[in-house]
Each structure stands twice: as C-alpha cells, then as structure tokens.
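User: I'm writing a short report section on ligand binding and want a predicted complex to refer to. Could you take this sequence and L-homoserine and write out the structure as tokens? A short remark afterwards would be nice.
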Amino acid sequence: MSSESVKSINVGICGLGTVGNGTLSIIQNNADEIARRLGAELRVIRVATRSLNRDEVPGVANLGNDPFAVVNDPAVDIVVETIGGFEPAFEVVKQALGNGKHVVTANKALIAERGNELFAVAEENAVCLAYESSVAGGIPIIKVLREGLAANKIKWLAGIINGTGNFILTEMAAKQRQFEDVLQQAQELGYAEADPSFDVEGIDAAHKLTIMASIAFGIPLQFAKTYTEGISHITPEDISYAKELGYCIKHLGIARLSERGVEMRVHPTLISSKQLLANVDGVANAILVNGDAVGSTMYYGPGAGAEATGSAVVADIIDIARYLLADAKTPVVPALGYRSMHQDLEVLSIDEIESEFYLRITAMDKIGVMARISGILQEFDISIEAVIQKESISEYVPIIILTHRVVEKQLNQAIESIEAMADVSESITRIRVEPFHGEQG
Ligand code: HSE
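Assistant: Sure. The structure tokens for the complex follow:
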C-alpha cells in the first residue's frame, strides 16, 4: 500500500511491562497484515514507560514516563492501558475517556472492581472501553460471550482461568510435589503475578470470573460478591484420593444462573477425570460455556504471556479502528475480514503438501521383503520414524511404518513402487500424521 493514500490510526501505550511490550511488538511485526485488514495503518505514536531506554523501544517517536501526556495528546486516537493495578491506571483511563479517546485495557482488577464507574464515563463520552485481554489472555472469551453466543440465555460457565494455579495443581498431581515447592518454581518461571497470593488465593481468577459473569448474565460487575477460595490448602494426598475416586482437582471459576439468582464462585473443585476440563494441564486456560440454544462449548488457549495477551489487546485496537474508519458505504468489518486481500497467495494442491505418514503395507512374510521396502523409501529420500511388524496370520504380514516429513508427491511415487512389488498384496493404506510441530493442539 502506498503510505500517502493510506489513513492511519494513532495509538498511545501507557505501560511497557510484559503486555505493553507484547502489544507494541505485535503492532510493529504484523504491521502489513493489520494494514490489510484495516485498509489503514496502525501507528504507535507515543509510549509512556518507567524505563526510558530508547533502545528498548525502537520505532516510537515520543517516549516519556508520563501516562497523562499520552492521554492528553490530541493526535492519539486509541489509548492502551497496560500499567496494571488501580493507581494511576484508574485516573489514566478515566481521563482518556473524558478526553473522548477510546481505551483498550488489559487490567482485570480495574475492570472487575471499578469497571462500573469507568463504563459510565465511556458511555457519557460516547467512546469504547475494551478489555478482551483482561480475561484468559489470548482466548477471545469476551467476544464469544458478548457476540458469538449473543443469541443464547447463558446458563452457566466454568473455567480454568488462572494459569499459575493450574500449573501448580498439574505438577502436584503428576509428581506428588508439595504446594510451596511448585509455587516457587512457578514464580521462577515467571507465571505468577507480582504478588503470588493473587494467583493462589483465587483473587486473579475472581476478577476474571466477575467480568465473565457480568457479560454472560447482563448484571453489573460485583467483585465483592464473588466467593473466593484458593488452592494453598490442597495437598498431594487430596489429589491422590480424588484420583482413586475417578476425579481430579482443578481450581475453577464457576458462574451459574438459577431461579434463585446468580452464583459466582472460585474454588478448588473435584471434576470427573473424563471431563475435557480435567485434561487442561499446565499454564493453559480453558472455559466451558453453556447456552440454552447452543449447549456446551469450550474455549482453550494461553491465559497469559506477552504476545498471547498482546494478541487480545491488538484485536481490541483493530475493532475500534474499524469503527473509526467506517463510513456509510463500507461495512465496519469486511465480509472476509480484509480490506485488501492477498491475491497472490496460492492454494497448494495436496501433492505439494508436506506431512508425516502412517503406512500399512500387507506383504509376504519372506526374507528380504522388508529390506526391499526400506530400499524403495530410501530411494525416494523418505526417512522412517518407526516400524512395527505384526505376527503373520497367513503368509502375509502387516507392516506398519511411520515416516518423517515428506512431500506427498514423493510419497505417492514410493507407494506406487512398493505396490508394484510382487510380494506386496492389496493397496497400501496411508494416513497423514499431524504433529503440530510440538505445539499443543
Ligand atoms: N497470573 C495470571 C495467571 C496471569 O497465572 O493466569 C494472567 O492473568
């Protein structure tokens, strides 16, 4: 896109800790892709941070340590609040909204405890206060509850919404480790909040649960009424006894609507080991949402981390930017999400795709057959990861081979040669293997 003809949306960031940095680097690294979606450039024009080392903040013209300079800058369209805590974050957000600026915050404590006041200020000034990143990091659960499931009366939701707590319980269960020991490791790994009691006493999860319950049931934010119990009293013995009974212990946030009212509670909970939530391990987050029309749905992903949380902050910025850029002739969100599509990205044929393969070959149980099959695979540069040869039930024997990655066209040629062998019967069964490259799928 030529920069002269392209409009721009100007962003100011207050606070360059983990999430602020993640946000800045996504906006900078994915600038072209974001510009294609928006039909405009997203530019970070001003940053306020405690550390004024310019080398640590490349590509930003105005760097200072006063967040109020960001919210009072007339050139800033959208303010990002990633300072955390209540002060000065509350005043910064309030002033930005009062100045008619849209605000994106990752601050769950601020939204859960003072969101009612701030949303009123946003409404008075006809601006948005967006907070997707405040709950479950990179999982777009606010959008799910507020938009995706808008047709439903939400009956209940239950989630693992504190990664540190889940990491601790997972480690205690897997290795019979004591609580304090695993907490120390979580702190060393950087998972825990600055004050780890927020994680282990359930306050962090209660902030997130309060926010989700408000959106799910259409009630004001009421953090003080959320029952909050932590995990520090759970022992490896409790986990073992629960396991014997077919359960595992997870620290859950649960919100439920009944004829008697709304439940909002955070506490350790026994859930059947067969439940999907029981298999969410480590620092991952997952939320089950039950709506009267849709039934149960589940959302899983990283609940913390610079870029995962930054991903949700930037999504909020893009939502607001789309709204700022909309006019009577164009829809706020383009039908396929992009104003400028990638016309030059070709869709690959299946022949061109690389994959690992499971092969089942039915061959004569004879000396040399296996060697010949290996020889053909070697000829086509296909490396073998594992082989199983089952007991023969007739003169034929099933040979199971797992290959390393290979382009499908090459594998087809090898299969054709193996199928042409006199000692191989029937056609070869091939199933593609998808390892997701070590990422949890
Ligand atoms: N300390 C939080 C957690 C980080 O462990 O989930 C994100 O809120």
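A remark for your report: The pocket of L-homoserine is lined by residues 137, 162-164, 191-193, 199, 204, 303-304 (CB under 6 Å). DSSP finds 14 helices and 17 strands in the chain.
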